[in-house]
Amino acid sequence: MYRGACIGLAKVPEVRPTFEKRISLCIGFPAPESPDSYTLDVSTGAEGARTDRTFTPKVSESGTWLSYYSDYLDDLRKWVMMMGFSYVSERLVFVDTTNPLSVLAMMALPQVENTLVFGIVADAASTPVDQNTSYCSLQAIQRLRLPTILATKSFTGDLVAFFEDEGLLVKEDALRALCSFILSSTAPIVRVMNKDEQLGVRTHGLSATVSGSRTVFRSTRDAIEMQLKHRSVATTDNEVQTIYLIAEGRTDALREIGDAFEMQTKKFTGLMNAERFVSEADSKYELYTAVTIYGVKAEKILEAIEKGYEKIAGRSGKLKVEKLK
Amino acid sequence: MTTTFALKSLTYQGKVYQPATAEVDEQARTVDLSYVKESFMKKEKVHLTAVYFDELTKVTVDGEKVGVADVVMGMANGDEASGINEIMKAPYKAALGTLQTLLSGPASKFLSARAEALGALDGLRMDFRKTVLASEGSVPVDSKDPFMDVYTAKMSELEKPLAEALKAFDGFLGISPPRTEKPYAFLYGVCAVQDAKFKGEGLSDATQTLASLGLAAVEDERDSNIGDLTNRLVKLAAGQPQLLF
After folding, report:
1. B162 closest CB neighbour out of A9, A17, A110
2. Do B142 and A77 touch (CB under 8 A)?
3. Closest to A2 (Cβ–Cβ): which among B124, B184, B195?
C-alpha cells in the first residue's frame, strides 16, 4: 500500500501565488501612482540589468528602435512573463511611442485580455525620427488588437491640471496625475473598452477636466464644451465614432456635467455610441473631474505621422515596419 | 562457524526432550536441534528439527529459556541463553544498521530535496517575481506560464532522488511484497507532514502515519521550517530504526 503511494511523492502541492489587482508597465513614461498596482519600468542604462521592477537594456550606440528590438526581444518577452504580467487581472501599459524602446516593448507584450495601452504618440510637430518610432510602435500595438488611449506629444506638452491635494501641475506631472486618475477609474474604462471592442473600435483619444470648478470655468457647460474641443489626438467631430464620459464630483455638479455632455455630443454626427459613467465624490473645494474618452479610427493617427515614418524608412532602408516579426 | 550448546531441555510442539543439543550455524542461519534417545543397549542422537533464523525472526528470552518459533530451548545458564539469543538476533541487528544507513542516506537525500523544493515553491508564492528571476533557467524564452515552468522543474528535480530512495528500500526489503512496509510509510508520512506545513494546515492529521509507526513528536515543532522539521524527523527515525522494521 505505502510502497505504491510513494511513487507519487515527487509531486508537491500546487499553491498559486496571489497577485496585485493591477500591473502597470511603463516605457519612457512617468510611472503613475496607484496603491493597488505593481509598476514595472523599461528604460535604458549604462549597463544592462534586470530586477523584479526594472528591465534595463544597455544604451545602444545607434539608439534606434531597431537595435533594441533586435537585441532584446526574447529577453524582454520572457521578463514580462516572469513579472507575472499575464497573471494579474488588469494590465495597463503606459508608453511613450516615440521612445526607442517602445517598439521592442510593444512587440514583447503578450496578447492577453484586459490589457489597456495608454500611449503618447508623435504628431505633425514631431521629428521624423520620432514619427518613425511612433508609427512602428502603433503598428505593433495594432497587431496585438489591444484597446488604446492615445495622446499626442503636443497635447501632453500643453497639459495643465489642478489637483485638490497637489495644486497646479503641468506637463509630465499633470500627465502622471491624469494617469493616476485613469488607474483609479479602470472599472468604467474597461467597460468602455469592452463596449467599443464589440463595435470594432480599439483606438481612443481623451480629453480631461481634472479638478474643475466654477471659479475656473464660467459654467459646467463651458467646461465640457472646451474639453470636447481639446482632444488628445487630432480628429474632426465627424471622425469620432464613440464617446464616453467618466466623471466624479458632487451630485449637483454631476447633473450639470451630464446635461452638458448630452447637449455637446449632438454635434458629433458620426457617433455609434455615447454613454456616461458618473460617481459621487466629496470635494472640500467643490471640484469635479471629467474625462471623456472617444473612439477614433487608428488610420487617422497613423496618417498624421506617416510622412515622417516614410522619410526615415526610405533613407535608412532598415527602420521599417516590415522588420517586425 | 558452528557453535554447539548442550540443552537441559528441548520443548518442541509441546513435547519435552532431554538431554538435547542445539548446533547453531551462523552462516547458514540455522539451529539444528537433536536429542539423545537412550535405549537399553545404546544412546542414539536423533535429529528433531531445524529452525531458520533471519532479520525478522522473533526470539524470546525468559531466564534460561530461549523461545523461537515453536521451540523452547532450556539453556545450561543465563549466559548461554544470552549467547544464543545474540547469534540469532545478529541478522536483525545488521538489518537495523542497513536501514539506518538507508534512512540517513537516500531517504534523507530525497526528503531534504523535497523540503528544499517546497521552500523554493514557498518563495514562488510569497515573492513570485524574485523567485522566478532566481530560477530563470527553468523558464523557456516563449514561456506562457512561468509559475508552472518553475513548479514542474522543481518536481522533476525530485524524481531522481525519489527513485534512488525507493530503489534502495526495494533492494533491502524486497518487493511484492516487501518484508515490511514501514520504511515506505515513513517516507509517505514525512511527505504528508511537509505538505501540511507547506499549505499552512495543522499537523495533527498529517502526523497520523508517523504516529502509527511510533514517531509522533512533531506537534511542538510548528514554528520550525520545512527543512528543519524534515531533518529532525529523519534523525528521529534513524536513531530508532527498530520502529521501522
Report:
1. A9
2. yes
3. B184
Residue B183, Cα to own-chain centre: how many angstroms?
Answer: 5
> How large is the average pLDDT for residues B141-146?
94
Q: Which residues of B touch A107 (CB under 8 A)?
A: none
Please give the tally of structural domains in chain A: 1
- Indicate if B104 and B63 belong to the same structural domain: no
Mark whether B224 and B159 lie in a shared domain.
yes
What is the average pLDDT score of chain B? 91
Provide the residue range defining the domain that includes A310.
Answer: 22-323
B137 at interface of A, judged by CB pairs closer than 8 A: no
| Predicted pLDDT of residue B80 | 93
Asked if the structure places residue A2 within a domain, the reply is: no
- B69 and B105 housed in the same domain: no
Query: What is the residue range of B30's domain?
Result: 2-76
Of B114, B133, B185, the CB nearest to A52: B133
The three cell numbers of residue B100 are 539506518
Strands B43-52 and B59-62: unpaired
**Would the pLDDT of A32 be above 90?**
no
pLDDT band at A253 (very low <50, low <70, confident <90, very high): confident
**Cross-strand partners of B61:** B66
Total domains present in chain B: 2
For residues B133 and B190, membership in a common domain is answered with yes
Q: What is the pLDDT of residue A163?
A: 66
pTM of the model: 0.81
Amino acid, single-letter form, for residue A222: D
Residues 6+ apart with CB under 8 A from B40: none
Q: Work out the minimum CA distance from A109 to partner chain B, whole angstroms.
A: 12
Last residue in a domain, options B10, B44, B76: B76
Does the distance separating the beta carbons of A12 and B155 come in below 8 Å?
yes
CB of B27 closer than 8 Å to CB of B20: no
Residue B149 placed within a domain? yes
Mean pLDDT lowest among A164-178, A203-217, A303-317, B130-144: A203-217
Q: Is residue B85 part of a domain?
A: no
Q: Which residues of A touch B (CB under 8 A)?
A: 1-3, 5-7, 9-19, 50-52, 74, 77-78, 81-84, 86-87, 110
Q: Tell which phi-psi region holds residue A130, choosing left (phi > 0), alpha (psi between -120 and 50) or beta.
A: alpha
**Averaged pLDDT of chain A:** 87
Sequence length of chain A is 325
Cell of B124: 514562488
pLDDT > 70 in chain B, percent: 96
Which tops the pLDDT comparison, A107 or A208?
A107
On whether both B39 and B159 belong to a single domain, the answer is: no
What's the CA gap between A196 and A295, in Å, rounded? Answer: 7
Contacts of A110 in chain B (CB under 8 A): 144
Determine contact: B213 vs chain A, CB below 8 A.
Answer: no
- The CATH number for A279's domain is 3.40.50.1440
Say if residue B58 is in the same domain as residue B109.
no
Cβ–Cβ gap A77/B175 under 8 Å: no
